[in-house]
Amino acid sequence: MTTYLGLDLGTSGLRALLIDAGGGVIGAAEAACSVSQPYPGWSEQDPAQWIAALDQVMAALKASHPAALSALAGIGTAGHMHGATLLDASGAVIRPCILWNDTRSHAEAARLDALDGVRDLSGNIVFPGFTAPKLDWVRLHEPESFSRIAKVLLPAAYLNFHLTGETVADMSDAAGTSWLDTGARDWSDDLLAAGHMRRDQMPRLVEGCEAGGILRAELAAAWGIAGPVTIAGGAGDNAAAACGTGCLSEGQGFVSLGTSGVLLAARDGYHPDADSALHTFCHAVPGRWYQMGVMLSATDSLNWLGRITGRRPAELSADLGDLRGPGQTRFLPYLAGERTPYNDAAIRGAFTGLASATDTADLTRAVMEGVAYGLRDTAQAMKAVGARPEALLMIGGGSASEYWVELMATVLDMPMLLPARGEFGAALGAARLGQIAATGAAPEDLLTRPEIAHEVPPNRALTEQFNAGYDRFRAAYPAIREIQ
């Protein structure tokens, strides 16, 4: 038996998934990590937590599946994107990693974004959450730390460094730094210079399904692994999720209703449109890219409503019954600002159309509709650049709500595909990348779509009503922005 391991490093913890050569799940383990927020807008994590979590999940797998772990041949890593992990010349971490949801570098992001050629080379707006403005902030506010930087690694790349002793990163993760020429799939000396960085401070680039190194012998011995283990380049978390859901080629995509909301479409070519606030990133396999829009508060909006009403989100959703047309109450889901399509860190959420008769169910409908409309903003931007998925795989916690699934299908005017139970996320995608790197298999043969349990079509009887509701939603942003 030959096995493969996927490591998915999320903000709240690490998930390890052990699979066999056919993609069947052998075992899984998880370990938690915590986030530090010392000041408003700051979000940091000590990379030592990631290594402790790795030790914990590997010990659990060794205890539960020693024979299968012994047969490990390949590892793929996935991680939350944009994080700035700074290493000195000895490989030691200089300061806590500045995470993707840290907004302290908004002024530095605006400066970089305004420079000629930056969007053209990177294919993206320079968002405050990206890596380059974080380093510019360190340069200005922590010059002693900045002067010691020998390498900058993203979180998944730091795991690769621990696993192999080499500084290596994949294209999909690197595309979220604002240092990569995303079309050429290489570091850009011009972008690096704009951010006061150098090419020698960057890790070596490989494709996500390409071998990036070999597992260090001392780790293999500690984990009871018999033979050499290939470490793949890995992927940023959304690219890994695309691999796990089989979103590899033009016409394929998924919508994720998690804490944040993501609409992602695979692309066979490079078609950037930075002005739309779409992210255009390299995929984890050669010669492919993907585009996605991100809204910062998707199920988090319903979680917020649940907290203030004292109801669980599932209860709120269950009270709605069958899908109806838009309510009179509207919700702008900008509780933490917004990325696509506005790139507006200052905007905040709002209810409009409240009346004395408005009840909890009306608020719930408004929140769900606002999230669906916010993701339609991304769908509209994607259509403008030629990305037209035939249907969308729907994943994330929000996909458990039948009401929300039908609402999403109707608002986006696209069937929603619900996968059968099983593994299909970033950890599986990472494991598959490890398998490709170790075996040389064709990505198309392994990165396949999961079994679909159910397809939910748009409710055509309500299409025009929701189109009108979306128009009202779009008109509300500039009015609310004007008075905030």
Automatic annotation (TrEMBL):
One of its GO terms (molecular function) is ATP binding. Residues 4-244 form the Carbohydrate kinase FGGY N-terminal domain. Keywords: ATP-binding, Carbohydrate metabolism, Kinase, Nucleotide-binding, Transferase, Xylose metabolism. Its EC number is 2.7.1.17. It is an enzyme of class 2 (transferase). GO terms for biological process: D-xylose metabolic process; xylulose catabolic process. Residues 254-438 form the Carbohydrate kinase FGGY C-terminal domain. CDD domains: ASKHA_NBD_FGGY_EcXK-like. It holds the Pfam family FGGY_N. InterPro entries: ATPase_NBD, Carb_kinase_FGGY, Carb_kinase_FGGY_CS, FGGY_C, FGGY_Carb_Kinase, FGGY_N, Xylulokinase. It catalyses: D-xylulose + ATP = D-xylulose 5-phosphate + ADP + H(+). The record marks 8 as: Important for activity. It comes from the Bacteria. Belongs to the FGGY kinase family. Catalyzes the phosphorylation of D-xylulose to D-xylulose 5-phosphate. This is Xylulose kinase. It comes from Pseudooceanicola algae. The gene is xylB.
